[in-house]
Amino acid sequence: MGTPDFAVPALKALHQDERDIILVVTQPDRPKGRGRKLKPGPVKKTAMDLGLKISQPTTVKDPVFIQYIKELKPDFIITAAFGQLLPPAILEIPCLGAVNIHASLLPQYRGAAPIHWALINGEKRTGVTTMMMDKGVDTGDILLSRTTKIIFEDTTAVLHDRLALMGADLMIETLKGLINKQLTPIPQNHAKATYAPLFKKKDGRINWDMPALKIYDFIRGMTPWPGAFTFCDKKRFKIYKARPVDKKVLEPPGTIIRHFPNELLVATAAGCLSILEIQGAAASRLDIKTFLRGCRIEHGNRFV
Fold first, then answer.
1. CA neighbours within 13 Å on the CB side: how many for 287?
2. Which domains does the chain have, with CATH numbers?
3. Cβ atoms 17, 173 nearer than 8 A
4. Tens digit of pLDDT for each residue in 258-270?
């Protein structure tokens, strides 16, 4: 059970490991693009390419769907970013358990956006965890976990792909351990749990009253979705890449400060931020040198 890109490596790994995948369950097709035509998600596309049987229930709580899963008699149910919470009536079906891959070191960052929040909070490491599923959100007993360092230049997009591959490898190892009875599920310490709620598009607005390093981490966490943005003279600018600069400034946060011709420096609560890639309204994503050739932003202007 899975839907977005994060779940694709796990599906491919299970297929390559010659596991008998009797069904792939994924979210219904969603309207996309200007024409708003229904299009399949990444997991469905992969399942179709692999010739696997697919089911797309509107809700997994549908009694007809639950009965269908019962009749399949699966050994395991495996989920990765599926998008629906499984009810107890489904969790109790597989004889060897329902196992989930989560993109954090549980109990840290339970929820839908663990990669985003790890970057925004300036974490130095993260990882993936496999767990036995229960009725809560990412609250089940831990099976295995693997850690990776967060590189200073990582964005959500880059870290997402790295963790997706790690999760796929960890899932194969987890299944082998469970089948061979070599794994003992370990209860999570719920007192140490933190949460990673999903973002909306409006949440990408930059708060220039934060220090430069915090804004840098925020931009990394917001890239590519929902995107970090700001306004200047009522025009919207999306910032894709920046770097913090240890420079003492007296100007109010958000102020464009004096800079070299091909540099755009913005004052923050501590230090300043050098904008490296930016996109104006109805324009393309550009490196700052190219952008400044066609769009002059004078020092003294403010991002808000």
1. 3
2. 5-192 (3.40.50.170), 201-294 (3.10.25.10)
3. no
4. 777 889 999 999 9
